[in-house]
Amino acid sequence: MQYLLTLLLLFPFTLSAQNLTRAQAEQEAQALAVQWKEDIKTQYQQAWQNRHLIVGSKIMSFWYTTYGTKPADGYSLFISLHGGGNAPAQLNDSQWENQKQLYKPQNSVYLAPRAPYDDWDMWFKPDLDAFYAALIQMCVANLDVNPDKVYLIGYSAGGDGVWRMAPRMADTWAGASMMAGHPGDVSLLNLRNTPFMVWCGALDAAYNRNRECAQRGLELDSLHAADPDGYLHQTHIVEGKPHWMDLEDAAALPWLQQYQRNPYPTHIIWRQEEVTHPHFYWLTAPADQLQRGKTVRLSLKGNTVTISQCDYTQLTLHFNDQMVNLDKPITIRMNGKTLFKGKLSRTLANLQSSLATRNDLRYMFPAQVTVKCP
Which domain holds residue 299? Predict the structure, then answer.
């Protein structure tokens, strides 16, 4: 990868274990962020200029505009998924054109991609994760989007995509809103730290959307009741409206913009979905053990991590000085046992490897430790 090669040339002592101070780690992180943006611009220069993103053999065209002025901490980014589905390309093209003009979030980049498939699951096939990640990286590098202000919204088939992709990439989004989609069999557990909205017409009976959406709203109610600090959500089953809600759902955009992503939540519930990921927030699981349904639950208080569930043989935990005091010992416990207790070193190698792996400026960590899960 060009980005990693650049790092190696710029920092010949990448693999050294030299312990950095907090100030040194912050300085190195700032330098790496500047270089990362330049490398992303170079890597995706043709895609950005042509508005055509290629992943594997598939092409995703995209359109974007900006509304309002750029805030001091960077633009918000709304990725807005069009409807359509298993239909002729011309129909999906027309839905894409419609989606371009559907919403106008203030002080934001509004980006409407064209699905690379003409199929019912065109927004959540296995390779879509890489498309979403690349869109975000390009917007962060080229448009000064704040990576903690990225929102996912979608209508109809696009709503189907939001149901699946919001939990699947929950550590990416500042929030998500589903409009007139069907949830299928998706688990909502990963939305613990991701504000979520459900919008559906009360008369939208095709595929039982209205009933399914109402039921998922009740499920989120139960999750929030059991965990009042998590699962922020609203459910709107709009009376008198069929599949088209006459843009009443546009109220979702200012609601979402109240929230920013917390990349370092102190309570994490991580359940693997149908497309598995080795990373979630500040955690990494063994790549050869990923399987749908495997779950990790843990909490962080002060410098102590308490793991209540880990379905893997081991777990890597990444840390920075915004999360813990790295000048003091870290303690990791599970089932009454101390899995680790000690001080962790801040290193340039950790900063480089975490950024190169995650390609997210907020997931750049100077310290890490791997523990065995009993």
Answer: 2-39+264-372
CA 37 – CA 46 distance, rounded (Å): 15
Rounded-to-integer distance, Cα 241 and Cα 260, Å:
30
| CA–CA distance, 110 with 104 (Å, rounded to integer) | 7
What is the Cα–Cα distance from 309 to 110, expressed in whole angstroms?
38
Which pair of structure tokens corresponds to residue 349?
Answer: 């190698």
Mean pLDDT in residue range 79-99: 98
Classify residue 305 as exposed, middle or buried by CB count within 10 Å of its CB (0-12, 13-18, 19+). buried
Is the same domain home to 16 and 58? Answer: no
Whether this prediction's pTM lies above 0.70 is answered by yes
Same domain, 72 and 185: yes
Return the DSSP state at 277: -
pLDDT category at 17 given cuts 50, 70, 90 is: low
Pairing of the two strands 145-155 and 75-81: parallel
Let me know whether 268 and 321 are in one domain: yes
Residue 11 clears pLDDT 70, i.e. is over it: no
With beta carbons less than 8 A apart as the criterion, state whether 146 and 154 touch: no
C-alpha distances (whole Å) from 227 to each of 176, 194, 267 are: 19, 13, 10
Please enumerate in sequence order all residues whose Cβ is within 8 A of that of 184, keeping only pairs 6 or more positions apart, or say none: 160, 163, 164
Q: What is the Cα–Cα distance from 280 to 267, expressed in whole angstroms?
A: 12
Can you tell me the distance from the alpha carbon of 79 to that of 99, in angstroms, rounded to the nearest whole number?
A: 10
The three-state DSSP-derived secondary structure of 98-118 is: HHHCCCCCCCEEEEEECCCCC
